[in-house]
Amino acid sequence: MGTRLVRYLAQCGVASRRGAADLVRQGVVSVNGEIATNVALSVEPTDQVAVRGKEVRPAARTTVLMLHKPAGVVCSRRDPHNPDTVIDLIPAELRPRLKPVGRLDKDTTGLLLLTDDGDLAFRLTHPRYGIEKTYVALVEGGVAPEEIEALREGVHLEEGWTAEAKVRILDEARDRTTLEIRIHEGRKRQVRRMCEKLGHRVVRLERTEFGPLKIGRLQPGASRELTPKETASLRQAVGLADELITTHDE
Ligand code: URA
């Protein structure tokens, strides 16, 4: 079944439907090389639609899922040593195509994204885009103000200094401290190693935020698709905002 030309143009991100209708009336839209004059013309996916001679195509429909990763499951797609993977926790129909965006350790809980949008996943994990991740870490011992300062300024790990971080104490109880740590790098076991370097073993670690997204009330083991607003803010955070976010309300 075909799609009406104005709708197709809107799906391509060329303009709103009204704007697309104006373009057709201006005679700058062609279908298979012929100037289109009828806004209600039906186009098929195989048709070549161009605006001012430049071919346009609708954005591919991609999925971004937020999972509340529980402890004890691994982030790899298949792991012979760990039969429980995050993929087992997502809806069966999405398993073949979604991949985790970065990793959380087996024992880390919290916000994990999975997507089939390779470009988005690349940008979300590449240090160049500096996406901030927020962790809540329960650590052993009391944490002194100079240790908080050291975590903020950078800790020397075996591969070098960590970048500046935002760190604050959320709670101090008996001989344990709850820290909120915001980092924009993604080194292996980074938060655990930063705390351990200062002599504080991490007892529990949860990622509560990823860029503009928050885990909210999503229960451990549960997953949901991002809302259009969340998807838009995530794409904006990595410089993909100028591309069309296809609306499904038309
Ligand atoms: N830092 C860690 O140490 N572990 C994680 O899973 C994520 C960040």
Provide the fold topology.
Elements: E1 3-4, H1 5-11, H2 17-26, E2 29-31, E3 34-35, E4 42-43, E5 49-51, E6 54-55, E7 64-69, E8 99-100, E9 109-115, H3 118-125, E10 133-140, H4 145-153, E11 156-157, E12 160-161, E13 166-173, E14 176-183, H5 190-197, E15 202-210, E16 213-214, E17 223-225, H6 228-237
Parallel strand pairs: 9-15
Antiparallel strand pairs: 1-4, 2-3, 2-5, 5-6, 7-9, 7-17, 8-9, 10-14, 10-15, 11-12, 13-14, 15-16
Helix pairs in contact: 1-2
Bound molecules: uracil (URA).
Pattern of helices and strands = EHHEEEEEEEEHEHEEEEHEEEH
The number of distinct structural domains comes to: 3
Share of helical residues? 10-25%
Question: Which sheet architecture does the biggest sheet show?
Answer: 9 strands, mixed
Structure class? alpha+beta
If you compute it from the alpha carbons, what radius of gyration comes out, rounded to the nearest whole angstrom? 23 Å
**What is the strand content?**
25-35%
Oligomeric form: single chain
> How widely separated are the two ends?
16 Å
**CATH superfamily name of the largest domain?**
Pseudouridine synthase I, catalytic domain, N-terminal subdomain
Structure annotation, total helices: 6
Bound molecules: uracil
CATH topology of the largest domain: Alpha-Beta Plaits
What would CATH call the class of the largest domain? Alpha Beta
Low-confidence stretches: 242-250
Q: What is the overall shape?
A: elongated
Average pLDDT rating: 91
Query: Total strand count, please?
Result: 17
> What is the name of the CATH architecture of the largest domain?
2-Layer Sandwich
